[in-house]
Amino acid sequence: MEKEFTQSLITQFVDQLDQLIAEINLYDEDGILWKVQNKVTNSAGNLCLHLIGNLNHFIGYGLGSTGYIRERDKEFLDKNVPTEKIISDIQATKKMIASVLDTLDKETLLKPYPHIKIEWTTMYFLIHLNKHLAYHLGQINYHRRFLIK
């Protein structure tokens, strides 16, 4: 049963990260990816960096012992990172997620996730991370449609 769960979750993460790449590719120029306007305070570029950092921290570091060191402040402070770099990092994140989640067994999924203050099982926290990705993917979609006329 855990393999069905992890495979379904891998599919969900990969599909959404593919959608993220598609969204990035719909921006007709790199500068707009970093633009903020009115009450939109996070650029799509910064949200992309945030998603890459979040997934690499909580899945890569937290479950896969990848050694990833998160610099959360930079996710929102960095600007004008080349689109090719962001896409490359998303592709690497997809591979990392598939690799790490494929190793999880039932015991690990049912244990509390170790790197948060809330007592959520690893299974529940992975669902939360998937929801977090979907939420920001929606924001990026809105950002693109709002700024590209």
In short:
This protein has 149 residues and is an all-alpha fold.
Describe the structure.
The structure is a single chain. The chain contains seven helices and no strands. By secondary structure, it is an all-alpha fold. The protein has a single domain, classed as dinb family like domain (Four Helix Bundle (Hemerythrin (Met), subunit A), Up-down Bundle). The protein is elongated, with a radius of gyration of 16 Å.
Approximate shape: elongated
Largest sheet: none
Number of helices: 7
Which ranges are low-confidence, i.e. pLDDT below 50, for 5 or more consecutive residues? none
Average pLDDT confidence is 94
Q: How far from one another are the termini?
A: 47 Å
Q: What class do helices, strands and sheet pairing give? A: mainly alpha
CATH top-level class:
Mainly Alpha
Please state roughly what percent of the residues sit in beta strands, choosing from under 5%, 5-15%, 15-25%, 25-35%, 35-45% or over 45%.
under 5%
Q: How many extended strands? A: 0
CATH architecture: Up-down Bundle
Under CATH, the homologous superfamily reads dinb family like domain
Helix content: over 70%
Attribute tags:
149 residues, elongated, Four Helix Bundle (Hemerythrin (Met), subunit A), single chain
Topology:
Elements: H1 2-26, H2 30-33, H3 44-64, H4 72-77, H5 83-101, H6 106-110, H7 122-147
Helix pairs in contact: 1-5, 1-7, 3-5, 3-7
